[in-house]
Amino acid sequence: MTWGKKPRKPDAKRRAGFGTNPTGTMQLYLPIAEVSVNAFVLLGLGGLIGFLSGMFGVGGGFLITPLLMMIGVPPGVAVATGANQVVASSISGALAQFKRRAVDLPMGAVLTGGGLAGSTLGGFVFDLMSRLGQTDLFVQLSYVLFLGLIGGMMLVESVNSLRRTGKAKIKRSHVQSWVHKMPFKMKFRASGLYISVIPPLLVGAAVGFLSAIMGVGGGFVMVPAMIYLLGMPTKVVVGTSLFQITFVTGYTTLVHAVTHHTVDMMLALLLIIGGVIGAQIGARVGVRLKAEQLRILLSLLVLAVAVKIGFDLLLTPAELYSVARVAS
Amino acid sequence: MKGWLLALCLMALPVQGEEIVSGVSQSGVSITTNFDGASILVYGAALRDAPAPAWPLMEVIITVEGPSTPLVIRKKDHVAGIWLNRGSVKITAAPSFYAVASTKAVGDILLPAEDAKYHITIPQTIDAAAAPSADQTPYIEALQRIRQASGSFVLAPDSVLLLRQALFRTDISLPANLVEGPYKVRIFLTRGGEVVDLQESQIDVQKAGVERTLYRLAMEQPLLYGMLSLLMAMVAGWGAQELFKRLRI
Fold this sequence. Notes:
The structure holds two protein chains of two kinds. By secondary structure, chain A is mostly helical. Chain A is built from eleven helices and five strands. Chain A has helices spanning 39-56, 61-70, 75-99, 105-132, 135-163, 177-181, 198-214, 219-229, 234-259, 265-286, 291-314; strands spanning 27-29, 36-38, 185-188, 193-196, 321-325. In chain A, helix 1 crosses helix 10, helix 2 (61-70) packs antiparallel against helix 3 (75-99) and helix 5 (135-163) runs antiparallel to helix 11. The two termini of chain A are 42 Å apart. By secondary structure, chain B is an alpha+beta fold. Chain B is built from seven helices and 13 strands. Chain B has helices spanning 2-12, 106-109, 112-118, 122-125, 137-149, 209-220, 222-247; strands spanning 18-24, 28-31, 38-48, 58-65, 68-79, 82-95, 98-102, 127-128, 153-156, 161-163, 167-174, 181-191, 194-207. In chain B, helix 6 (209-220) packs across helix 7 (222-247). Chain B is globular and about 80 Å long. Strand 5 (321-325) of chain A pairs antiparallel with strand 5 (68-79) of chain B, so a sheet runs across the interface.
């Protein structure tokens, strides 16, 4: 529009950052998270997580959720969408394992049963915490506690087994007598076990609980629990764990979508595209590394995340105040 | 002497017959997939029955206000070595976006009483749930600080261009992190700190295309939406597996 003859400097209006638009061509507006992020950042993030998950055989949820929060995605959306992304990465792993007959289906079903119960309970606890305004603390503490514990255990175990070179295979532990004394015994042929269904139900429930509150698949808890607690042979552990994770994260995704409307399909799509490609590359790199080296690397990664989140709790935050929208 | 008297009379009386005619560059903003913020142009002029008084000068304040939402502001405290949320203040309504553009610093061209009446400055737009108290002040200040840092609250003195005491224009940029809803645009003409005329219009911000479809599906058909999300994850996971197997990399 013109205003007649009064001359005006063309840039006079663009002052003090007012009227200046941030430029960027690949910005993507996420419909549910209601934030705008760079599409390449998301693809790269998905790719990185996929690479690690393909290499280590974990879902990578423990990385994706904190990273999404770091780029400005609201915690609720990060947890729910993280779960959705884990479905994609774990299903492709589970299918591959299924073809190799490395899935103990009855065990998977029992673990899934426990997982669904745990996930439901986790959802309630998550709601309670958000009503108390302690979601952040709760999620952060869970991360520090579980990642620190598992990462530390894994590191010690793999360093030890690396020292005992030659016979480096993890020995399947003897199932403790209390597991044998429990009722409701069931035969798990693929695992060669005849044990009570209670321990697998509890393991499944614990993992489901974590899935709901941390947005993780829980493979990093499940795999050691299956080996050391249930005494399952390693050949069926990864496949069965992926089988259970697929169902539990799928259920978690549905629960979050229905009750909180926090699954962002656009965000999930980009993470998944990056993730599935990264996973395939990671799997090929992983084959070239020794199992102990892989476990040491994974445990260091898990510990690094735990330490980072732990420091956030301990160090004085730059901004003491935070603003949260409440549902009207 | 006569001129002096006239000026005094004009000062004493509220200035009559000054009216805003204005326009906004667009009546709506569509949030599409590649939405990266929008810039809106607000322009207008003061129509007068008589020549403009020489003093006090006309000034212009333009505000853009996004939909209000209830909020909770929380404060972290050092408890047993870790930082956790302790205190909180409830806010009944605070705008999700608020911009104040003006010809000069708002404090110089608007009387506090007029601000209280028209709710023009940022603090005036925030409604705390409880009665105002000294304890709340740091929380409300923090809200303003956080929102100003994120670009949701914008203070832009000297950004309204005023020509010949009649024509005015400004550009207001809406950030990429925009919430859907009606955005209220208000234009105030002030003289000597008093509001002479006020005009309101509205810009509708709406998600469009895929954004709209996904958002509505997520809110109205959450089960179907959740299943679709899962289906997408399954197809992608299985598809990648098959694709890479075929490629034999």
